[in-house]
Amino acid sequence: MNTLLRRLMARLIQVGSLTVSGPDGRPETFGDGTGQPVHIHIRSARAARAIALDPMLAAPEAYMEGDLEILEGDVLDFLRVAFVNLGDDSAPGFWSRLIDRLRILGRRLHQLNGAGRSKRNVQRHYDLSGELYRLFLDGDMQYSCAYFEHPGQTLEEAQAAKKRHIAAKLAMRPGLSVLDIGSGWGGLGLYLGRSFDAQVLGVTLSGEQHAVARARAEADGLSERVRFEIRDYRNLETSFDRIVSVGMFEHVGVNHYRGYFETCARLLADDGVMVLHAIGRSGVPGATNPFIRKHIFPGGYMPALSEVLPAIERSGLVVTDVEILRLHYAETLRHWRARFHANRERAEALYDARFCRMWDFYLAGSEAAFRWQDLMVFQIQIAKANDTLPLTRDYIGEAERMLARREGAAGDASDGPTRPEKVARAGD
Fold it and tell me: Which residue segment(s) compose the domain that 97 sits in?
């Protein structure tokens, strides 16, 4: 093992048990010996040098290329040791801290997501084969944080609960018009159209997702009420009673937050309601993990609330409710990764072993960031006027229970009585 890497490991790993074998095969153990032992083998001198200089990027790339092998434990165990010792997003060592600071300084350049670049970024990730996503998502293909109402809930149940939770916060009632910004494979738009007889327009920049969503609407007999278009939300002109955006805001970029909310303010009816569901960070503003930015979500960024709320304020919109979902995404990712592992051979047939190692590290790294770093999911409810919504949050739970009963989810709907008449008038 080279001297620089040894010094990095000795300085970084204070808690836990991490054994590192360098290219020469000789193992050295770092940490206080507590917890799940993890043993990694760095197979090449090139990879060892790269990890010593820029561990946040080079370690996952070495795993992806097969130059870092985990001999004991798995990727999540390795990341737990690393993240628990990091404590936050700062990188260890002077050189690595300098690289991290430069990434923060350059983040606005990385997030110049105009219309053309936004479409290319979306295509890099979401236009992968739909068959890949079917290997690990729930049947409705919800590619965002689920909402676990109680321990032991299945992924399918938690994703259904997420849709009910969002619909309740939108104060949905029959016949409203809804804009779904970043509509994915169509599940949420179809749910709102089916459950509330809503007129839904879902917009996306992904050709793959658009094709699947349109086919689903046609198959469900909803294509007259629920439409999906390949379109940039910034080019829309029509006013909507409700706006929802789930898992899309991460691709907007800090340079464009003000424009995003000004567009939403222009598109939202005077008595309208919007719900924004996105990944954020509970700490201070930072930079996107370099591996994620380079290989998974180019142009993506998970903001601190201190970066989002001022843009909402300047747009003239009113924040009416904020909810933080802390470990819900960690649990979602745990389910996704287990399903991906169960279908690993099929994923390799679609792509190759290198891609599967990259995807495995992405899923494990994301779960680790929600468990042991500062990532979370926020849901911000927004209106144009203070009196659009009821004075208390009771209507949210009531609407969720009513929807659960309607859908036959008796276990989720048994907590007391519902008053459907109040739910139907929640937006009045």
Answer: 3-105
